[in-house]
Amino acid sequence: MVAERGVDFLITEKDSLQSRYNLDNVNTLNGLGYNLINQERQNEALTVFQVNLDLYPEIANCYDSIAECYMILGDNESAIKYYKLAYVKLDSDSTTTDEFKQRLREGIAEKLTEMGSDINS
């Protein structure tokens, strides 16, 4: 449906789409966002990741995904902001395993270093 009507449709209809299309799983929109990135449609992916973040503000991976999209777009300031938010959210995120949290922590630290930052700056 979003592929046919575009991401603006997702924004305006996210509440009804959430109930009709099992958007109660954070991975649904996250997967769509990465599919858009793979199609070099980063601005649309960014919109999808933002909707996912709006729906699931407690999940660290949502922040990590939007940070990655910003980094791809060359907006390092926003990428750093969202990577740091993802890092902070990891401790309270009960939706994932400790192993995944550790991989995410390491990935965040690596990305921040690539952009000339770190978790404490």
What form results from the Cα inertia axes?
globular
Helix percentage: over 70%
Class by alpha and beta content: mainly alpha
**Strand fraction:** under 5%
**Overall mean pLDDT:** 87
Number of helical regions: 7
Please characterize this protein's 3D structure:
- The protein is an all-alpha fold and 121 residues long.
- The chain has 2 domains: 1-56, no CATH class; 58-121.
- It is 75% helix and 0% strand.
- It contains 7 helices and no strands.
- It has helices at residues 2-5, 7-20, 26-38, 42-55, 60-73, 76-90, 98-114.
- Helix 4 runs antiparallel to helix 5 and helix 6 packs antiparallel against helix 7.
- The protein is globular.
- The protein starts with a helix and ends in a 7-residue tail after the last helix.
- The model has no long low-confidence stretch (mean pLDDT 87).
List key phrases describing it.
single chain, 121 residues, mainly alpha, 2 domains, 75% helix
Summarize the structure.
The protein is mainly α and 121 residues long. The protein has helices at residues 2-5, 7-20, 26-38, 42-55, 60-73, 76-90, 98-114.
Architecture blueprint of SSEs:
Elements: H1 2-5, H2 7-20, H3 26-38, H4 42-55, H5 60-73, H6 76-90, H7 98-114
Helix pairs in contact: 2-4, 3-4, 4-5, 5-6, 6-7
